[in-house]
Design a protein that fits this description.
- The protein is mainly alpha-helical.
- The protein folds into two domains: 129 residues, no CATH class; 87 residues, no CATH class.
- It contains nine helices and two strands.
- Strands 1-2 form a two-stranded antiparallel sheet.
- The longest helix has 24 residues.
- It is elongated and about 75 Å long.
């Protein structure tokens, strides 16, 4: 989906100097590419497009930030462990007589202050509130929904594309640069993969690597080449 560009006026403070943006694109243009492919950035306005792209990323990255500790393995292990605990609790609650649930509820009712007791009492199938006792059946239903959510997060197919420190903020940056590259060059960016050393190469890979040091907030852990390659794969798949 195309994103609306920024207005460049005399009061605009670019995220990086214009000369630096020109140097980045010159390096990308000089990158070795497949026979028959022309340089992607030949228009004089292309450096401004790069500034625009970096600025848009800087303004929107906060909502896409994912801590680097949330790697695919860490996420899966966490949600699997959580599922086991929730499943045991849910199994225990469901097999016990409902009379026990009622006793829990009424014990909580007896623990309320006089002011709380004077308020309208909630029946056993009402909503949970901060002032009223926790409804046992509502609690069971909440655990069921929670279990479904953690199971989805654990088995989310997107995790298969998250290698090493491939985070949402990196994916967000690649998406912006992908659109900029396509708009400036008239073609979708690609890559080559050296299967011997497992390294992603190409002018678009180089563009991403050159832009990463200039974004704000900076990446606290430098994205790996593999993470960049996997991010490009996702963009190409979504744009096809």
């Amino acid at each position: 989906m195309a994103r609306k560009g920024m207005r460049i006026d005399e009061n605009y403070q670019p995220p990086i100097p214009l000369d630096e943006a020109k140097k980045i694109l010159e390096k990308v243009n000089s990158c070795k590419r497949k026979k028959g492919l022309t340089q992607p950035f030949k228009n004089q306005d292309d450096p401004l497009s790069l500034l625009n792209t970096i600025e848009l990323f800087n303004q929107t990255v906060d909502s896409f930030f994912t801590k680097p500790t949330l790697t695919p393995k860490n996420q899966k292990d966490f949600y699997n462990k959580l599922n086991k605990h929730v499943s045991r609790l849910l199994e225990f609650l469901q097999k016990e007589p409902f009379e026990y649930h009622e006793r829990i509820y009424f014990h909580q009712m007896n623990s309320l202050t006089l002011e709380q007791k004077l308020k309208k009492e909630e029946d056993l199938f009402g909503n949970i509130t901060s002032e009223k006792p926790i409804n046992p059946q509502k609690f069971i239903n909440t655990l069921k929904a929670y279990l479904e959510t953690t199971d989805y997060l654990s088995s989310n197919p997107l995790n298969k594309n998250r290698k090493g420190n491939h985070r949402d903020d990196l994916r967000h940056l690649i998406g912006f640069l992908f659109e900029m590259y396509e708009k400036c060059s008239g073609r979708k960016p690609g890559y080559t993969l050296d299967k011997v050393v497992k390294v992603y190469k190409g002018d678009f890979v180089l563009l991403i690597e050159l832009v990463i040091p200039h974004v704000k907030p900076p990446f606290d852990i430098k994205p790996t080449n593999e993470a960049i390659g996997e991010g490009i794969k996702l963009c190409k798949k979504e744009s096809s």
